[in-house]
Amino acid sequence: MTGSAALFTDRYELTMVDAALLDGTAHRESLFEGFARSLPGGRRYGVVAGTGRLLELIERFRFDDAELEWLRANEVVRPATLDWLADYRFHGDVWGYREGEAYFPGSPLITVQATFAEAVMLETLVLSTLNFDSSVASAAARMVSVALGRPIAEMGSRRTNERSAVAAARAAYIAGFDATSNLEAGRTWGIPTMGTAAHAFTLLHDSEEAAFRAQVAAFGPKTTLLVDTYDIERGVETAVRVAGPELGAVRIDSGDLPTVVVAVREQLDALGAVNTKITVTSDLDEYTIAAMSGSPVDSYGVGTSVVTGSGHPAAGMVYKLVARRDDAGEWVSVAKASASKVSVGGRKNAARRLDSTRTAREELVFVGDGPEGEPEFESGDRLRPLMVQLMVDGEPDASYTGVAGTQAARAHRAEVMQELPIEAFRLARGEPAIPTTYR
Amino acid sequence: MTGSAALFTDRYELTMVDAALLDGTAHRESLFEGFARSLPGGRRYGVVAGTGRLLELIERFRFDDAELEWLRANEVVRPATLDWLADYRFHGDVWGYREGEAYFPGSPLITVQATFAEAVMLETLVLSTLNFDSSVASAAARMVSVALGRPIAEMGSRRTNERSAVAAARAAYIAGFDATSNLEAGRTWGIPTMGTAAHAFTLLHDSEEAAFRAQVAAFGPKTTLLVDTYDIERGVETAVRVAGPELGAVRIDSGDLPTVVVAVREQLDALGAVNTKITVTSDLDEYTIAAMSGSPVDSYGVGTSVVTGSGHPAAGMVYKLVARRDDAGEWVSVAKASASKVSVGGRKNAARRLDSTRTAREELVFVGDGPEGEPEFESGDRLRPLMVQLMVDGEPDASYTGVAGTQAARAHRAEVMQELPIEAFRLARGEPAIPTTYR
Fold first, then answer.
1. Which candidate from B25, B120, B200 shows the least CB-CB separation from A320?
2. I want to staple B138 with a disulfide (CB 3.0 to 4.6 A). Which of A311, A420, B46, B342 is the partner?
3. Where is the Nicotinate phosphoribosyltransferase N-terminal domain (chains A, B) (predicted)?
4. In a domain? residue A3
């Protein structure tokens, strides 16, 4: 993707900069923190996603002439501030959780250190990317864990905005999905793409058999035939007759899946198509996938539920000023104090405490006003540091961006899942799998 | 926005084209229909949005060299099909509901007539735009109706993908919101933008008073001051002291709003700031807005709930082949027959039956296989035709696109709301406000 990201921004970021430039506070060095106050829906853990996309978008966060002209014509900020915006590029440092990391309430997912003006401008972009992508990844990870190793493909592009679909495919892949139907996600992020035919293809033809013959002619017998346009039993019979017993797979997109799948498996076996796989795709979510754990299903395709965060389409992350330097150059912790939205001020560092079996037991958040550095880890159980430096002077660490960063995030998530306690994988509502402790 | 939309597409659209080009069925003239089988969450009506954006995206649906090269390298389709894709542009006709129109289950929201290959390729894009934007607009319209004329601003960019945020701002505006915080939505779609300051601005300063002074210095006393960073009562007192009784507004973003708002109104009046308005912005949705109908609130800012469709982030629309010509050139109705997802085949036209008080009573869907044309309206009550031609030979009707189209959609929605029966505006779950009848 190309183009500036500068106007993916709430107007008040710019008006704050405008006012702060006027009284000089805009240049105070500041520390903003992104975190989630809770996990939605009684989930046990969340999965961080969006970080790699965010780093690329921050790097491209510049105001071009057309954008500046629009801001001028609409009198969004004073002319002097337009000059400042024209020169804007982010020069700060960013630390945070690696993409693919598990997180819990209060985990300091991202820390942005820069002047107030430089850092506050990124608020909307930071939250848009992390909230949406983490929402998808957090839902997707639950689906992956209950799929018990069976492959899952993301097929939800049509159920979300055409551009968020690309981000959703990426987030689901990081969370362990195996492929996507979305071609742009394949091109931009290197995610394997898949897809064969819809009901329209069958209806286009004079008969189901003609449709299957056309598909096999184009893609060979190893293709996946959609067998439920008219009558599933007849569809399966026709599919094997047309493609032969080496037919790759049949797809079922309707009906009471656990019942239908058993019948289709028996029919395929009776027809000699013992290696033909069964993939199902009808409004699946983590609960219906879990309910098919004993069914002879080979793979899943998931649409609406994964791209909409399975009931929780925004992860609820916030971006707060937690510290700033005073006129004497000293760091001062700051926090909002009003009802029900209390924040913990100050710079944070974090580590996950693992017990002797390498099982996570506690999310430790170290609070301090000083500059960054290694937290003072306690002895005993192993502590795994959670924060890495993501940007140095406005430059992203390339290991976290692009196709390689996406692959690394997916691999990191797989490792992290190994250390979560078994309670983390319960679908039922409950407490976070490990407590967050401020030290 | 610029750039191609061709890869915002599920892989199976291209593989279907590939197979259908091989057996010649790709060129069969076809009719696809977009509709919703139901309204989510027991809502009484939906609001169509996304149409204007969609028309612009269809016009730009071309495969550029980089996209073709990626498809070639990944062997998505056969080389002959790549040549066909290289020449692709949509030449078909599109009819549908005007953007901003109310809709009900089965309403034929969009009808695409073209060759199978040209029309099937648009499936993902049609559904992404209509599902997301209509989800937002349908939720937003409910908020507008319970706000009883008080202005509402859309402030949810941070709770959805950075690009879907722009579409969400537009959809909410069409549904009757008055402004957005999103700057790109202002620039691209001409939507009024708004915003003043966040808690970070107060925390940046050495005191709340210093922050207020900075903001008033930049924007004058008519600005909106955020008074709940520390203590609301003290915040209000400081705000009026700094800005004077001509202070434009105070914003409250936390606490039990109905209680807090009454106290703040009394305090403002006692301080002589009788014209200072109160705006509230704390996790509002249609239910909390309705609960403040008797509170002295002047305006609302809504974030998460509107951009995520207030619990229903995808409108559930589908895009189905409903008719095609056979080899003799005759139109043949087609429909999937399998369990639980039955569709009604054939070309549709639609009208809303209005009674003598101009109140909507019935959604009439006329089913026929022939070419488009005026439905045979029955006598008696007035019938308002619902479908207009949106594209002719691949060219959008300019009255439905761009800034002007967005304004027209907003005005159309306001008119349509006038004709809905009073039951339509109940928040409680129930049946659609009017029945859909197939004729």
1. B200
2. B46
3. 7-131
4. no
